[in-house]
Amino acid sequence: MFTCKTSNRKMKELEISIKIFEYKDSTELTAEYQVLVEKAKEVAKKAYAPYSKFNVGAAVLLENGTIVTGNNQENVAYPSGLCAERIAIFHANATYPDQPIKAIAISSMYKGKYNPNPVYPCGACRQVMFESQNRFNKPIDVIMHGSNGIKKVTNVKSLLPLSFDFDLKSED
Fold it and tell me: I want to staple 23 with a disulfide (CB 3.0 to 4.6 A). Which of 11, 28, 97, 110 is the partner?
């Protein structure tokens, strides 16, 4: 949400605020979101992260109920690897091109233990999520798991309020 204050005739001060829902654990989520978090946790264990030891798993829930997963894949020739969120979203969009994404759950581990606090998606992943949200004109819930709690936003725009947005409908 944007709010605006007029300081003088030439300048305005804008403020951006977002709503984040906090949960003690996944049992406070809907049943389908509980499953999604569990899938993200499971796939985090299978990430290929020999250099950072920082495993990330992502599970994407499509509107038709299908769940697609992905995990981070590192490469010695950094930055040739790819984040879990982008792997899951690109796989979902390639395999189910007509299915909007309803939600994505993200979980992370360090040296075999789930991180206590949720880890937020990087900027590139946020932009990819935003593109997918715009592609279908439907908000995507982003659920971020930590062993000490879960955070959720109900629109990718909350994580990337000043996103790069190219208007494909404009005239040539």
Answer: 28
